Structure formats: C-alpha cells, structure tokens
Amino acid sequence: MIRELSLGLLINTNVPFSFFSDTFFQQLTWQLDPHLSDQISWSRQSMSRLLDDMYKTKKDMVKQELSDALSKIHLGFDLWTSPNRHAVMAVTAHFLDRQGKHQSRLLALRRQLGCHSGENLAVTLGQVVREWKIEDRVGTVISDNASSNDTCLLNFYGDLDAEMSLVDIRARRMRCYGHILNLVARAFLYGEDFEAFEAESQVFNFLGRHEDDLRHWRKKGPVGKLHNVVKFIRSSPQRSELFKNSRENDEAQEYLLAGESTAELEVVMNNDTRWNSTYLMISRALVKQGDIRAFLVHPEVEKWLPEADMSKGDDWRLLAEIKHILEPFYLQIMRTQGWGSEGGNGRLWEVMTGMEYLLEHLEDRKLFHHVVPDDAVAENTDSQVEPARGRPDRNRQLPARFRDCEMDMHPRKSMESSLPGRGSGQCDDGPGKSSGSSGIDDMGKDHRRYLRLSIITAWQKLNEYYTKLGESPLFAASIILNPSLGMSYLEVNWASEEQLVWVRDAKIGLSDYLDRWYRCSRPVDEQQKAIVERAASPIVPRKTSEASVFRQWVKSRTAKTTAMGSELERYLRLEPQETEDPIEWWMGRRGQFPMVSQLALDILAIPAMATDCERSFSLAKLTLTSQRLSMTTETLEKLQCLKNWVRHGAVKLGATAGGRDELQWEIGNSSMESTDVEI
Length: 679
Known about the structure:
Strand content: 5-15%
Structural class: alpha/beta
Largest sheet: 5 strands, mixed
C-alpha cells in the first residue's frame, strides 16, 4: 500500500522520481515514523521499476474493462510535439461500460517516428490496437480533418478487415467537431487564406520583424488593431503598469460595486492558431473598453503607438458584433467538449444539430447585414456563394424563424423584430436606425462590407463540412436513434422538396448500416423467432369449416407479418420520447429492439470531439518540465496512462489506513483543464 501511494504521489503531483531521495523529506518521514523509511523505495531507480510493474498490473485491469464494454470501442487520436521535440500520438478509447456509463481511457502516448504520412500514422495506430487486443471491437475513429488522416484510416481499417470497402471506411471516419468549428471561426476572423496569414505572422515573430508583424495584423481591421494594442500593453512591465494606472485614474471606476480579481484586471492576448483566444481577447477588451480608451489617450501611449492602431468608435461597434457572431461557436465548443453527461454535452447527435444551429445563426446575421445596399459587395458575395456539392445548398431555404414572415429585404424595422439578442436591439421608429447598445447602424460602409464578407466566408466553410457529414450515415443516425428527437426531427427541419432527399438518404443509410454490420451476426432474434413459430403453427381443430380455416389463415399471416416486421421500422413508428438520457432509454428496451438498441448504444458512445487527446497533451506538458526533458516517451506514456486511469476511476492506487475504502482521486481542475481544443 505504501509503495502504491508513493507512486501515486509522483504521478499526481508531477514531481521527479528523485523526490523521495531528498534529505529534508527523509528527515520528515523519519520524524513521523522511523519505520516508514523501510517501506519506501527511496531511489530513483526503484521508483522507475515500481512504475513499470504497476503499469503492467493496472493495464491488465483496463484491458478487462475494454473486453467487458457494452458498446464498440471508438478511438480518438491526435499528434503533438513534446517539449523535448518528439512527435507523439495520443490514442484514447471511448465506450459504454456494463452499466451503460460513458467511459474514456488513454491507451497510448506513442512516439511517432518518420514523416506524418497517413501510412505511418496507420502503423502506429494499428500497433496500439493490437497491443490492447481490441482489433475486433474497434468502432469509429475520431480525428481532425487533415487529409493525412483520411489516408491513415484507409490503411488502418484495411489492415483490420480486408473486406471493408471505401464506403465502409468513410462511414466510420468521424470528423472532430471542435476542429471544424476552429476552421470556420478562423475563416470568419482572417479570411479564406487564414493559414497563410497565420504562417506569415509566425515567420515575422521568429525573425524578430515586429514592425512588419504589426502592419500584417493591421490589415485585418479592428481585430488586428486590437491585437496590436494588447500586444503593446503586454510587451513590457512599464506599459502594463501604465495601463493599470490609467484604470485607477479613471473616474468612472469609483462607481464599481465590486472589485475585480487580478486576472480580470489584465487584457487577454490571442495567439495565431486558436480562434477562441481571439474571442476571449475581444470579450475581455469589450469589458475593459473604458480602461483601454483611457490608456490610448495617455500622452506616452500616443507618442509610441501608431495612429493606425488606435481603436475608434466604429471599431468597438464592430468588435461587439464580432463577439455576438462568434459567441454561439464558443458556447458550442464548451458544451460538446464534455464526456456525454446527462444525455448530451459531447455526444455525436449534437454535431449535426449544432451545425444546423450555427448555419442558421450565420444566415440570420447575413440577412441582418444584407439590408444596406452595396452593389460592389453584392456582386462579390453573389459570386462566392456556390451550391455545395453532394447535397442541396442550404442557402436556398430561409432560416426557420423567417419562414412564416413576409421578407422585405430593405426595410429594416420589420426584419429586426425577428432577430434575437443583440442583433435586434431596440429600434427607433426611424428607418435604418437602431438605438441601444449595439450601434450597428452607425457602422461605416467598410465595416459592413467586412462583416458581410466574413459571414459568407464562415458560412461557406461550415457548409462545406456540413456537406461532408453525408459521407457517414452515423451523424444522421445519431439523431434518428436519439429517442427524444427521432425521425420526426429530420422531417421537420429538412422540409423543403430538396431536403426531403436528405431524409430519405438518412433512413436508407441507417437501414443499410444496420443490415451490413448487425443483422448478419444475428440472423433472427430469439424472441422474434418464438413469436414467429407460434404464429406459423396455430392450433387448428381437426374438423373446421371453410370460414374458420380462412380466418385462421388470415390471422396466421397477420401475426407473422407483425413478428417479422423490421425492428427499425417499429422504432421509427414511435413518437418522440420524453427522456433525459438516450442511453438509459435504450438500455431499458434491449429486449424489444435487440439489434437496433445495440447499434444505438454503439453510436451514442461516439464522442463529438477528440478532446481527450488534447487534455492528455496538456497534462503531459506539466509532467515534461524543462528539467525533465531527458524523460523517454515510454516513461511519459506510463505516467500519463496511470494518471488518466486513476482519475477516471478505472484503477485505484493505495488504500486508506484502517482498512477503509481505497483512496480515490477527485477529478479536479488539473485533470479537466480547458485545453482550447484545436478548436
């Protein structure tokens, strides 16, 4: 027990293996219990051997847990460059345990050798799967949208099952929802060429060409100007102190009812690749707008900060509208990066519904900003909007909230009454003017053009990936097999003539997938078979009239038809069910729908994102400090896997004194850090 607790201390606190060799610690333990030192392996080598032994023992327990899983085992993987410059692949497993609870386990932090081609990635992923002996249990794989991942899965599934076709593999390729939203938000903020923009900024910073980087960001309008202002404030202790002094001297601060924390006093700096850092930068800047304005008019600031970076009134109005547009994206990410609690928050059915919600949100804002005539912009935007391939263009149908309204595109007053939140604002009686905090009508023509083009760029990117969801039937199936939504959700939301094709395809895709992967392993359900046999062999009296024989025949055929009716058809005929947890609902109906319930449970175990890989990277970075860069990837993997298994309740280390229950580690903030998931 003492040895396990000692190892648990090293794992949980990220201290080095030499911790117990420290003189002061040894003296402390001797003062507490002179015999304790005899029970602890003091040397670094002893703790390393203990780690190896404990990892092997606990790994067998996790293997058994995977073997007992109620659902398929879905994999998530991602790549990371460690502080000691090793390419590392994280592989996580997602499944339902025997109680129907969603579980997540870190299987590997494996060094990725060679180039990051799809073929090489498939080799590493295959090695992990074979090591854990789950080849026949693998369901889907969740990863980001890199083309190399498509190649990886093509090779990975091809090795697992040579009979899998390209269609079968695409059906099991789950696109990380967080990565999709990351691409969409970056397209909104920086344009279609956002990757080139970010790469150029990184080059300027690497070469120390700070003036060029400032000019580079300035091209992106108010967001770029705010970036430069925040960078200016945070570039030296003196400027940070000047910003704080400007705030303290602001007379308006006398009316604050509550003080601000140390973190709230600071402005937030964004980085190049994580859009939500830009969202948080804008959000904090809007809260600190008065402080920033006071800072910008300080004589020292006016002397050193270029006039082109000074944020004006129009800039702040545009930043407020940008925050309003991006807020649903941020909230979607925060919602779906969870572990499928309470029937939602991270389950697959939230991906398609979430994208529908965000597409409609962008369409609302596009309509809102389209009412001001601008011939040049109209020509530009019309040329950009092209029908999405493979599926009808969603832009042909108005958002649901506008379908029952008369849409006059130019009078603002009638349209704004239908818009939610900040967009509608409080309208004056005068045409084309709004009052309230939004101030959108007061924005200049250039800012309106910027917003419209940004919205269209984001809509196109989101619609591109929304269309790609059709490559797998499981996204729509996750909605159909959610008993609180069902087929009726798709029928209501895909109601146009073109969208009815989507409904048909979703139903056919689900039926085909069920037949392909589930019906073949269960030729006839035992319960159905008994009903069929009873119906096919009615007890007929030895002497009966012709009418009686006829009635018996009709009855037998009717009973047989009902018994042999498709499980899926019987489920689809149900009305939407009132349930908070779809898994619990299906667990209670496994006898009624044996095949469909198994498919439903398998699908409900699929997460919306590969977030746990990012969490593992964040925790690994805390372990691999600047003084531990010589640690091997194998040791890092053992430490992080044990940490993950203990914190998720898969295994336990040590026991409390007096024979009480084994020590439990709470899943605190350190293990659940919000990691800005590539998102």
